[in-house]
Amino acid sequence: MDRSIDNSSEYINLLKKLTPREVEIIEEVARGRTSKEIGEILNLSHRTVQKYRQNICKKLGINGYRALFNWCLEHMKD
Fold first, then answer.
1. Per-residue b/e over 39-78, b at no fewer than 16 CB within 10 Å?
2. Most exposed among 28, 37, 53, 78, judged by the fewest C-beta atoms under 10 Å?
3. Are 62 and 44 in contact (CB under 8 A)?
4. What's the pTM?
5. Tens digit of pLDDT for each residue in 16-63?
6. What's the CA angle centered on 56, arms 54 and 59, to 5 degrees?
């Protein structure tokens, strides 16, 4: 299942807060990948991925990995 960003203006405005790398991270989160798996795919350490996830959560006003995953499911489409 390939997930892409929903194109509605509300979601685009939220995504404008994120860097291109952060968008890559949330795309992988939406696929259900762990920090370790994302790190391997993007050639980053799992700690770097965790830091990106923390920054994404702060920018989107959500708290925690589960909330980030749920946000991805809600705001991203197949």
1. beeeebeeebbbebbeebbeebeeeeeeebbebbeebbee
2. 78
3. no
4. 0.78
5. 889 999 989 999 998 999 999 999 999 999 999 999 999 999 998 889
6. 110
